[in-house]
Amino acid sequence: MSSLQIIIAPDPRLLKISKPVSEINKKIKYLLDDMLEIMYKSNGIGLAAPQVGILSRLIVMDCSDKNNNKKPLKFINPEILNTSRETSEFEEGCLSLPTQFAKVERPEVVLVKYKDENGKNNKKKFYGLEATCLQHEIDHLNGKLFVDHISKLKRNRIFQKLLKHKKQRIKKS
Ligand code: ZN
Question: I need a labelling partner for 151 at 20 to 30 A (CA). Which of 25, 26, 31, 39 fits?
């Protein structure tokens, strides 16, 4: 059973820059599995380590169709090498910003370099929803949230709603 908990915005821990992983050991592998578990349990398609309070450059993702087989992906020290000029727009959400959504425009294709859990170097192109999701998660590693891509007015409105939810949760507990 995982003991990880997802941090809800606004929270200063979500604004920090995560550190590269220097050694891929058992602890890292267990952490990636725990992150996948909590991501699936929360019905998310991506999760970055800082969202569970760990400032390491680790991401898990699964953008597969729910009716099809699971396609879990694990990224260690991901780095965007190139992006397409063409963009696509998706309505984004985030496990750290529950019930909040906004349209965000990002490059449609990204070329990403990363290590897998066996320490193997990969260089791969991602398209469409996977490209958007991966950019969203890499943003987390750099202390950025999807609401940083929308207007200040919309962003403030979202943070106000989240603060209200937070206060209600504190009162209840
Ligand atoms: Zn997110």
Answer: 39
Find the mean pLDDT for residues 73-84.
98
Kindly state the tokens that stand for 139: 């943003």
3-state secondary structure of 19: strand
User: What does the alpha-carbon distance between residue 171 and residue 17 come to, in Å, rounded to a whole number?
Assistant: 31
Angle at alpha carbon of residue 118, lines to 57 and 122, rounded to 5°:
70
Annotation marks residue 108 as catalytic: no
Query: b/e string for 119-132 if b means 16 or more Cβ within 10 A?
Result: eeeeeeebeeebbb
Task: Say how far apart CA 90 and CA 151 lie, in whole Å.
Answer: 16
For residue 26, the CA-to-ligand 1 centroid distance in Å is: 25
Q: Give residue 2's pLDDT.
A: 65
Q: How far is the CA of 123 from the centre of ligand 1 (A)?
A: 23
> Is residue 130 predicted with pLDDT exceeding 70?
yes
Q: What pLDDT digit, counting tens, does each position of 22-74 carry? A: 999 999 999 999 999 999 999 999 999 999 999 999 999 999 986 668 899 99
pLDDT for res 173: 64
How far is residue 51's CA from residue 5's CA, in Å, rounded to a whole number? 8
**What is the number of residues in the chain?**
173
